[in-house]
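Reviewers of the previous submission asked for a worked example of the structure-prediction workflow described in the proposal, so we include one complete record here. The input consisted solely of the amino acid sequence. No template or homolog information was supplied to the procedure at any stage.
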Amino acid sequence: MLLIPAGTPKPSGLSAMVSALWAAASTYGVYVTDQLGGGPMFYGDGSSAVGKAFNASDFSAVGKALRLAKTS
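From that input alone, the workflow returned the following structure tokens.
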């Protein structure tokens, strides 16, 4: 499980979708479900809105803020 630690300042200028992911990651955390090469990778529902957000330049802010909270 990864999360954005409490008190981590949210960068300004995030898109609405990335802001929602930031809020979820800082409130509930996120689980690693697949291991691929490179940095964090998130999966969405396949909608065009999610697809656009996942290609947004501000999306990497979430991945850079995540910290390990629990290992299995």
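DSSP finds three helices and two strands in the chain. We consider this example representative of the routine output the project will generate in years two and three.
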